Amino acid sequence: MTTESPRWFTSSYSNNGGQCVEVAANLATSHGVIPIRDSKNPNGPVLDIPTGAFTSFVASVKTNDLTRTPGA
User: Fold this and answer.
1) Distance between CA atoms of 47 and 65, rounded to whole angstroms?
2) Mean pLDDT value of segment 1-16
3) Cα separation of 23 and 40, whole Å?
4) Is pTM, for the whole model, over 0.85?
5) Residues 6+ apart with CB under 8 A from 64
6) Hey, what long-range contacts does 34-37 have (CB within 8 A, 24 or more apart)?
7) 10-62: per-residue pLDDT in tens?
8) How far is 30 from 52, CA to CA, in rounded Å?
9) How far apart are CA 29 and CA 65, in angstroms?
């Protein structure tokens, strides 16, 4: 088991507007997840998103293809 800590960062596109999320991509390889948290509440809950799901989400954002699957 690794004791690696998350290294949190906020996107440079956020412009420090306060409505941001932070991600810790450094855990993708060792844990298979991308932790995500609210930048306004760094001691609050953390969502651990599977690496593949996060990659698919980012790809969809980049191509502006955020269609919702019926029943989801």
Assistant:
1) 23
2) 77
3) 13
4) no
5) none
6) 35/6, 37/8
7) 877 777 666 788 999 898 888 899 999 998 898 999 999 999 999 998 888 88
8) 14
9) 26
Q: Where are the beta strands (DSSP E) in the chain?
A: 9-10, 21-23, 33-38, 47-50
CB-based contacts of 61, cutoff 8 Å, min separation 6: none
If you search the block for the tokens 């996107």, which residue do you land on? 11
Residues 10/22, Cβ–Cβ less than 8 Å: yes
Q: Return all residues near 52 (Cβ < 8 A) that are at least 6 apart.
A: none
Q: Is the pLDDT score of 63 beyond 60?
A: yes
Q: Are 22 and 39 in contact (CB under 8 A)?
A: yes
| Alpha-carbon radius of gyration of the chain | 14
User: What is the identity of the amino acid at 42?
Assistant: P
